């Protein structure tokens, strides 16, 4: 049984190759000399231009389960509701999770200063830390807000660096024109 499974995995090899050591199997196979000790290729398993499964392709088991449940979805839903109404806690939790799923995030209402310059960014970060310390927002919410403020800081920094570079280039051009005269 195990030998049959191995044969399926090593399909390009002949049955006599199963008795050979790994080094000889790799040497007998059509692999490059660089890969003589490897039985299975590493890295990207598909060649260029072949991404593997098509986009949106689903697993065979998923397709089989969907085919089995295809006509029964309504009946299963009714049965789950009946069990929930009869007092089955698990069925009740299942129904409530579908009716009112857990919210992944909530609107956070804290006052932040304008973040149009680096001082505003520092003040906004201080406000977020203060709100977290007071318990107005959770640590996860504070982390998400700090990430947004950090993105704004990088944008401000990029604009300021661009303005500096333009000013330096103008100054260099004016210095070059003065030296030529």
Brief rundown of the structure:
The chain has helices spanning 2-9, 22-28, 60-69, 73-86, 89-99, 118-134, 139-180. The protein is mainly alpha-helical and 181 residues long.
Features:
disordered N terminus; 0% strand; 181 residues; 3 domains; 60% helix; mainly alpha
Give me the secondary-structure topology.
Elements: H1 2-9, H2 22-28, H3 60-69, H4 73-86, H5 89-99, H6 118-134, H7 139-180
Helix pairs in contact: 4-5, 6-7
* Oligomeric state, counting identical vs distinct chains: single chain
In total, the number of strands is: 0
The count of helical stretches stands at 7
Q: Stretches where pLDDT falls below 50 for ≥5 residues?
A: 1-11, 13-29
As for the number of domains, it is 3
Percentage beta strand: under 5%
- Main beta sheet, described? none
Radius of gyration: 32 Å
Order of helices and strands: HHHHHHH
Overall geometric form: flat
Average predicted confidence as pLDDT: 77
Class of secondary structure makeup: mainly alpha
Distance between the termini: 91 Å
Helical content (DSSP H or I, runs of 4+): 55-70%
